[in-house]
Design a protein that fits this description.
51% helix, single chain, four-stranded mixed β-sheet, 107 residues
Length: 107
């Protein structure tokens, strides 16, 4: 769910391997709230460093995190400042180099 007027991304899921929408929100500098579900969501938001992480299947916690993000401009700003650190993990050239190293280990 994208909140156009507020400029935030809220994502609830039970499972997602690599949540592109969370990476895309970081590219745009948009803070996000996601659930701590199996898969990559927790990792993409740095376990709370690059976005807020709510408990899975807990609508009250999701609502709490959304309110927290909306109410705390300092926290929102800190998350936005950290996003460039997170995005470095998803640079295609860097990923390719890491993949080549892993393949070479197998040879």
């Amino acid at each position: 769910l994208w909140s156009r007027g507020l400029g935030d991304v809220y994502k609830r899921q039970i499972y997602e391997g690599l949540p592109n929408v969370l990476i895309e929100s970081q590219i745009l500098g948009v803070p996000s709230v996601t659930t701590d579900s199996p898969g990559g969501s927790s990792e993409v938001v740095g376990y709370g460093q690059y976005g807020l992480l709510a408990k899975m299947k807990d609508a009250n916690d999701v609502a709490k995190k959304i309110k927290e993000l909306l109410a705390d401009g300092n926290q929102r700003s800190l998350i936005q400042k950290r996003m460039h650190i997170s995005l470095e993990r998803f640079i295609p050239k860097k990923i390719s180099q890491l993949l080549i190293k892993e393949i070479e280990k197998l040879m």
